[in-house]
Structures are given as C-alpha cells and as structure tokens.
C-alpha cells in the first residue's frame, strides 16, 4: 500500500460515519502471566495496557459511561460506538463468563462494532463459536497479538506462543467468517529491517483483514526497562525516533495488501510511564508525517518541520541519513564552537587580505552564515567561500527556517537562484553534486576547510583516506581542517595523510571535534597519547578507503570491515591496551 487505508476509512465505507472506540477492561488476566508467576511479555505494563482514562475495578456500566464521556469531551463524538475489549487477553475465561461480559457491554450503548484483543493460543473451538454468536449482533473483529514472525524474538520477549500458532488462529477465524487484525511491534530487541520485512511478508500471506502497528515502547516497571538500562544486555535495545520508525513503518505497510485496514500506526501510553522513546511529534503530527512519507516515497526533506535546538536555532532531520543536521544542544552554537572558533577565522580575517574557506556539506548553511557574520564583524579582509552540497533540496528545506529579512534567507535565495552570493565582506560559490568529484577540480589553496558531512558510519564517502588526501592537497601550509567528528578512523585517515592532528573543544557531545594541519603550530591541543595509541596500534584507527573517489557507501563500509578482519587475523588488537606495569 502507498496510501494508508485507515480503519476509519473502513468505517466510513461500511457505516457512512466515523466511530470511536470505547475501551473495556474486563476482569481477566493473561495466560502467559498465569503460567509464569505473573511475568508476561517483557514490554507489557502491569495494567495490560488499559486505556488511560479508566481506573482499575470500575464496573462495566461505569467503564462504558466513562468511555462515552471521554469520546464526547475529546472528540465531540456520539453513537454508534466500537466496543473495544483491549487490556490483557479477552478470551481468557470460560465461554459462559465471556458471553455474559460481552452481552452486558453491548447492552449498555449503541455498539455497531466489537473488537476483541487476544492471543493466538487462546482461541479454542468454543471461543470461536462464541464469537460467531456475536456476529449476529454486530461487526466482530479479533485483534490477534502477533508481534513478530521471528521465533527467536518471540522467545526473547517471552511471548509464550509460536508463529505457527498465529497461522492456525488466523486461518481458523477466516474459515468462520470472522475478520482479524494482526498486532505487530516494530523495533523489538535484536530485530532489524530484514526482520520487519520478513514479518510483513509472513503476515501478508495470511487471511488477515487489518493490521495494528506500533513502535516499541520502554515502559517503567517492566522487564524491558531493566534490560534497556543494562549496558551489557544482548541484543542491544535500540529505540527508534519518529523518523526512523516512520521509514520502518512505511516499508512494512508497503508489503501488505492494499485492502487491509490500518487500525493504528503508533504506540500510545501515558508520558510519565514512557522511558523511551521521547518523541517531539504529537500523535497527529506523526500520522500526518507518515502519510506524506508514504505518498512521496520517503522524499520529504522539504516538508519535515524544523526542530528547535538548545540555543533557539532550528535544525532539520534528514530522512535518508536518519540524523539531525546538528546537535540538538544548539545548531548555531555548534557551528561556532566546532568550525568558526577552532579555525580562528576572525583572527585570520584581521591578519589577511583574503581568507579562503572550503565548506564541505553546506547542509542548512549555518557554517557559511556564521563565517559571513564573522567577516562582517571583522570589517577587514575579505571572505571567499566555496561550499559543496550534494542535494539542492537541502537549501530549499533550509529556506523555511529563517525570517524573510534575514541574512540567512538572502544567502539561501541567492544560492538557489544563481549559485552565488556576494556582499561587501564575502562572496560564496555553491558547487552541487558529489563533493568527491568537485574537490578534484579545485586548485586554489584554502586557509580553512570545514568538513561537515553526516557521520562516518552512514556517510563514509566524505571521511576516507583518499578524500583526506585531496583535502591536504588543497590546504594552505598555514591552513587547518576542522570537523565535529572525533571518530578514530577519521583521525587515522588524517594521520596517514601526513597531517598533524588535534582535538577541539566539546560541544553537544562528550568528545570534542578534530583539527588537522600541515604545520603542527596550527594545532593548539594535540591528541593525547592514549588516543594516539588507539589510532596507531589497534584496528580502531583503520581509515575508510575509496580508491578513485567513486565507490558507494555500502562498498566503503563493507571494505572497511574486511580490512579490519584481515588486520585482526594478523594479531592487531581491536583496541590498544597499555601493558600493565609489573
């Protein structure tokens, strides 16, 4: 599916109007907890994910009354409603007991739809017969807890059933004409993109009619919370931000039949109970973003809203590289502390007639903007900047972040229109396309080179030994290369090019950035002995390689792994450890 077919669309088609869920908390537990002395799935809260507006032990009439009032207050919604048997396992009781519960709830309001949340191993013949009885009274759906098709993950999360149980339950429900929805969690411990795709492929082959999808939440007082807090726990639990999850969810949904209804696309829990993730997007914003992401095939850079950073300046998140352009501690501050100050730009402007800057990775433009402001403040010398940017969309996206009469917007508009900007203090030339190709055509020497690509592990093209050789060629004898990265392969590449290396002050990250120069006197704070030994005497400092400056990122990363494996086989350690004194 490219356009999400939401459950509300299903309701409009079948009933001509939107309907709201009235969550019901039956006095039932979960057989998984009962079999394991109260310990159920690792992510499950003590209340079995009861609706937030419900208090425990409310009578069924009170629950329905509270739910109707909540819908009326929050959504201005009225009848008919959906009876949503949500928390714990809603088929975990004798048939006679369940019949009484379901019947009582349906008598309390105008319910046209009934959704029963349960496990695939709690749907015996008598239970399915019971659900068929209620098909005569309303539209019956079963929300089936699948979570993943990966058997290893199912054991890890202590799910207590197999995917074979899911297959059996889905087929038996379909044979009896009962519609079912697969409940899946994306981001479970140890799972990656391939696992998500496999689960989507596996459930797509089953006779489901809908999917309920959400991201993994780490909730307080759950076994998952303890695992998340333990740095030694394997597999490492990686929690997705909203952009990462949107990309994963979009990939997942595209593998499903287009006529499946989507009941949910994001998790929902009380903020005070959520340890991670801490998303800045509200639920409605996220759903809107996901819909646009799918409609535009993920090409959404120009529509992503700005994120306010610690100093009040805005940054953006790049959906392809899955990183923000700047530290959230402060976008402008990072430019000043990682580039302008350590390159001594203002001092150079006072001392030289012209200062030449090569800016690699224009991005949102902050390094260039701050450099121009430094030239205006100095009011002596002239700044000449060549800036490189692979994706012109980035400039269009950046133009939404600045005021109409701002210097930043004037620069952006000029670069977008003509590729250049000029005022009394500075001139800027923008080169678009792959920076690896652009640097080959440059001949002039640069006093400052700002290297500001995305991190080496996802954008290795700009951090290789071969690329640094080109930068050294372009560097003036008294010039300096500065970057926010302190990665050991980056510093290793600098050293192998014959550059002297140092560390710049930390900002927004625990470690400082890096500086490199031909002349050691340009390095104020040389890298300490411990880090030097790590770079030179272990595989940690092994540079990335890109012969010909034309290899794709995946090739560079895989080649780097092969080099390290070969070095390890020769006895070179992963990390340098100084010999202990006797």
DSSP helix fraction: 25-40%
Side by side, the strands of the main sheet go 16-17-15-14-18-19-21-20
Residue share in β-strands: 15-25%
Domain unit count: 2
CATH class of the largest domain: Alpha Beta
> Which structural class do the helices and strands define?
alpha/beta
User: What's the mean pLDDT score?
Assistant: 91
Task: Summarize the structure in words.
- With 582 residues, the chain is α/β, with parallel strands linked by helices.
- The chain folds into two domains: 7-298, TIM Barrel; 340-564, 3-Layer(aba) Sandwich (Rossmann fold), CATH 3.40.50.150.
- Helices cover 37% and strands 18% of the residues.
- The chain is built from 21 helices and 21 strands.
- The strands form five sheets. Strands 16-17-15-14-18-19-21-20 form an eight-stranded mixed beta sheet, sandwiched between helices.
- Helix 8 (193-204) packs parallel to helix 10 (242-254), helix 13 runs parallel beside helix 14 and helix 18 crosses helix 19 (488-496).
Layout of helices and strands:
Blueprint: H1 7-15, E1 20-24, H2 31-35, H3 60-75, E2 81-85, H4 95-107, E3 111-118, H5 125-134, E4 139-147, H6 151-156, H7 163-175, E5 179-186, H8 193-204, E6 210-215, E7 218-219, H9 223-229, H10 242-254, E8 261-264, E9 274-276, H11 283-295, E10 307-308, E11 314-315, E12 317-318, E13 323-324, H12 331-340, H13 345-351, E14 354-360, H14 366-378, E15 382-389, H15 393-398, H16 407-418, E16 420-422, E17 426-432, H17 435-440, E18 446-451, H18 465-474, E19 475-483, H19 488-496, E20 500-503, E21 514-517, H20 529-537, H21 553-569
Parallel strand pairs: 1-2, 2-3, 3-4, 4-5, 5-6, 6-8, 14-15, 14-18, 15-17, 18-19
Antiparallel strand pairs: 7-9, 10-11, 12-13, 16-17, 19-21, 20-21
Helix pairs in contact: 8-10, 10-11, 12-14, 13-14, 18-19, 19-20
């Amino acid at each position: 599916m490219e356009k999400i077919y939401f459950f509300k669309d299903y309701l409009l088609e079948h009933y001509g109007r939107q309907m709201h869920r009235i969550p019901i908390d039956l006095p039932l537990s979960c057989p998984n907890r009962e079999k394991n002395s109260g310990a159920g799935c690792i992510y499950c809260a003590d209340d079995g994910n009861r609706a937030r507006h419900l208090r425990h032990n409310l009578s069924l009439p009170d629950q329905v009354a509270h739910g109707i009032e909540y819908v009326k207050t929050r959504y201005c919604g009225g009848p008919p409603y959906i009876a949503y048997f949500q928390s714990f396992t809603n088929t975990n009781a004798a048939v006679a007991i369940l019949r009484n519960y379901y019947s009582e709830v349906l008598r309390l309001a105008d319910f046209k739809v009934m959704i029963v949340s349960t496990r695939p191993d709690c749907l015996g013949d008598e239970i399915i017969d019971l659900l068929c009885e209620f098909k005569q009274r309303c539209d019956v759906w079963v929300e089936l807890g699948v979570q993943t098709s990966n058997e290893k993950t199912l054991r890890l999360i202590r799910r207590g059933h197999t995917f074979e149980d899911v297959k059996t339950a889905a087929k038996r429900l379909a044979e009896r004409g009962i519609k079912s929805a697969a409940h899946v969690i994306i981001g479970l411990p140890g799972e990656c993109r391939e696992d998500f795709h496999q689960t989507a492929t596996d459930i797509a082959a089953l006779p489901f009619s809908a999917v309920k999808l959400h991201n993994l939440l780490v909730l307080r007082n759950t076994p998952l919370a303890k695992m998340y807090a333990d740095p030694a726990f394997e597999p490492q639990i990686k929690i997705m931000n909203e952009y990462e999850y949107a990309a994963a969810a979009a990939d997942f949904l595209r593998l499903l039949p287009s006529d499946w209804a989507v009941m949910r696309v994001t998790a929902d829990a009380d903020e005070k109970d959520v340890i991670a993730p801490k998303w800045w997007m509200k639920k409605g914003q996220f759903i809107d973003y996901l819909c646009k992401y799918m409609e535009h095939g993920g090409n959404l850079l120009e529509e992503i809203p700005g994120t306010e950073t610690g100093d009040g300046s805005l940054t953006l998140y790049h959906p392809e590289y899955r990183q923000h352009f700047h530290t959230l501690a402060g976008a402008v501050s990072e430019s000043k502390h990682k580039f302008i100050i350590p390159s001594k730009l203002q001092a150079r402007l006072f001392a030289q007639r012209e200062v030449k800057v090569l800016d690699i990775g224009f991005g949102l433009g902050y390094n260039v903007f701050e450099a121009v402001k430094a030239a205006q403040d100095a009011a002596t010398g002239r700044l000449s900047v060549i800036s490189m940017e692979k994706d012109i969309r980035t400039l269009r996206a950046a133009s939404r972040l600045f005021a109409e009469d701002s210097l930043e917007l004037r620069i952006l508009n000029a670069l977008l229109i003509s590729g250049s900007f000029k005022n009394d203090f500075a001139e800027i030339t923008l080169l678009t396309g792959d920076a690896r190709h652009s640097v080959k055509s440059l001949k002039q020497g640069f006093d400052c080179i700002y290297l500001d690509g995305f991190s080496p592990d996802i954008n290795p093209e700009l951090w290789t030994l071969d690329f640094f050789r080109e930068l050294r060629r372009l560097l003036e004898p008294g010039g300096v290369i500065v970057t926010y990265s302190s990665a050991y392969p980056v510093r290793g590449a600098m050293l192998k090019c014959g550059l002297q290396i140092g560390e710049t002050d930390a900002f927004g990250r625990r470690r400082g950035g890096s500086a490199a120069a031909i002349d050691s006197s340009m390095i104020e704070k040389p890298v300490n002995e411990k880090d030097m030994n790590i770079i030179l005497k272990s595989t940690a400092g092994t540079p990335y390689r890109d012969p010909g400056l034309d290899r794709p990122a995946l090739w560079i990363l895989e080649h780097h792994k092969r080099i390290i494996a070969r070095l390890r086989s020769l006895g070179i350690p992963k990390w340098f450890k100084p010999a202990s004194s006797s």
